[in-house]
Amino acid sequence: MKSYVSIGLLGLGTVGSGVVQLIQNHQEELQHQVGCEVRVKSILVRNTDKERDIQIGQTFLTSNPDDILQDPDIDLVVEVIGGIEEAREHMIKAIQSGKHVVTANKDLIALHGPELLEAAAQNQVDLFYEASVGGGIPILRGLSEGLVSDRLKKVMGIVNGTTNYILTKMDEEGQSYEAALKKAQELGFAEADPTADVEGLDAARKMAILARLAFSTNVSLDDVEVEGISNLSLQDLHYGQKLGYTMKLIGIAQLDDQKVEVSVQPTFLATSHPLASVKNEYNAIYVKGEAVGETMFYGPGAGSLPTATAVMADVVAVIRNMRLGVNGKTVVAPRFKSVLKSPQERYGQFYFRLHLADEVGAFSKITGLFNELGISFEKILQTPLNKGELAEIIIVTHTVSLENFQEALMKLRDLPVVKDVISYYRVEGNGAK
Amino acid sequence: MKSYVSIGLLGLGTVGSGVVQLIQNHQEELQHQVGCEVRVKSILVRNTDKERDIQIGQTFLTSNPDDILQDPDIDLVVEVIGGIEEAREHMIKAIQSGKHVVTANKDLIALHGPELLEAAAQNQVDLFYEASVGGGIPILRGLSEGLVSDRLKKVMGIVNGTTNYILTKMDEEGQSYEAALKKAQELGFAEADPTADVEGLDAARKMAILARLAFSTNVSLDDVEVEGISNLSLQDLHYGQKLGYTMKLIGIAQLDDQKVEVSVQPTFLATSHPLASVKNEYNAIYVKGEAVGETMFYGPGAGSLPTATAVMADVVAVIRNMRLGVNGKTVVAPRFKSVLKSPQERYGQFYFRLHLADEVGAFSKITGLFNELGISFEKILQTPLNKGELAEIIIVTHTVSLENFQEALMKLRDLPVVKDVISYYRVEGNGAK
């Protein structure tokens, strides 16, 4: 066996630079952990002449992927270029030439994870992706090792730092969505085109990955229902606060009777829930298991060095496996094909806000309708509006099936006393300690 | 290879019963994860005739440890009897007969962990102890795998559920220490003799274990400074709240310039710190790394099934290692001999409360003294007392060396205007997001 391990790095952006820095600065620690030297041999970049913040010799850089993928001395490929097709091709090539792969690419793993993992298993190489969810938070290992013996029931995650930053500013400082987004962009927490973040797509990819591991199923990205935060109004956040809730973009993966639901949506969380105090750009994943009860993993969900620690945790795992001769043998395939719940099988509490004619008996028409449908209320807030003859009513239901709630919404809209259903949101975490 | 793995269980108390339940109820999941059947073959109990809550055939029980330790069909011993000497003897015997060991015994690991781990390595067996710290929270794997590539600087833990429950009741409901302790005893969160919990000894054991893994050093239990919560007054908690702090029993392990400090003491935490919202019997471990920044692991720190999930995570790891043929090869020995910091090398912020003669110029004598010693104040609270001519002053210092602060306390007591130094506590988490 060689006295060192050679890494080929695909990409030298934010995360790639962090990986190089960690390998340079923590070399002694790494050697102690894995028992050999860890070298970066070649780095794939688009432009080898570009000025970079990071100190790295020109000779390490190449714009030809084959310099890495065809180099027999390279044991391990770290993929941090992002995107789908190019990354996928490189990864397949690496796997087929017997190289282990570590990736931070959530888009790719969410879309093509199962087939890539299968290719890795067939070629007896490791494919690890801890950095694809929750940045520096070791949540994938938490699920597949730490909580492996439990039957997990629910995973709720604040898995997108951009939106959590925006919501924190809206919630705590009363900033508008637009102002908070602008601030996030200035600070580098949001991209120029923020769509993938604010519309919940980024979070959806991470939730698909989490749901697969938590429930040992083959959830696909299409199975994830997604709603973003770009239409949120401060008014709802304000009413939420009055009722004891904090608005968060929450990914929920839930398993009941071997059926799953996976969704991402703006959600009112009880302020006593552990996720409610996760602020700014931080991420956290809350995991509920039959035996363990409630756990939560908290930390930085993005950033150069934090994400690089997750990449390097995988690199250490690969090298340890190399030295033990067990690469490609440590991943457990999913146990179940995922079956999605129908709306009758999905339960939750809901907040909704409506405008009601301010006339005698109007409110009792609402309560009558809900009573008929067997839906009871946990909280009610009523405010007169300065818009003529309207009252604004906010209601939080007790737990109800999604189907039942959707029917109620439809019937509400048909009631003459109901002028408008302004908004509705899922509510979570009531009864949390 | 056998088509099953046989476990011998030492002890059938709270955690042992949880382990049996998990193995019974999650057998299919376990088989999927490890690829073979997982059997409990024999259980060591003091009294085989005792009535038990758990359903287990009489034939599984034995009061003779050799029925387990000498049985060649038993691959893995799970030690959950607790205590030191007996557990240690059994464990050594198991290791010497080539059996892997999983333990939840923090006392034993804190005291004899290094020598037991060495014995395990020599005999090429695994010795895992995830359940010894933080109950169901997979914190040891978090440190030794998830954050393995980082250089960790600080670990702060709420690692004792009993004291956290008591402090939550005191802080939120204004209960006295005695009343809160009584309530904790009624609920089964505190033992009849609560000394080990309330005096911080239990937390100290866990902090020794955490410090070893976080800093790759051989910290011993004697290196841990300990102060409990039995002398806390509600008055200080109340002043702390006014200043934006929550009182917690915090274990702190910190590394600077390759020197460590490990301590457990009642500490005022800024309410914005992630640990401040950890309530009741819950535990959490906050980890700060050079690269990753701030992370936190939260969950149930005790209890039958939660702790059993941690035990079973270790069992799964042992069996996976067995099937890969790599037992006894996955543990990394500490890299450093631990060197403790001197009081000059230990820095922190401090809260202190004193009674001052209510006369002109008294306060300026205090500020003068601190000015001379180069200690500045972050917060000051002054309240007139109804005890004749006294004023009560609460001061929070900026960061200062422990030596400097201790000198200040001594000199304070010598000032004629200072009638009494009532209390002082460490302050942490200022500047947390």
UniProtKB/TrEMBL annotation, chains A, B:
Cofactor: a metal cation
Keyword Amino-acid biosynthesis: yes
CDD domains (alphabetical): ACT_HSDH-Hom
Taxonomic lineage of the native organism: Bacteria, Bacillati, Bacillota, Bacilli, Bacillales
Enzyme class: oxidoreductase
UniProt name for this protein: Homoserine dehydrogenase
Keyword Amino-acid biosynthesis applies: yes
Domain of life, per lineage: Bacteria
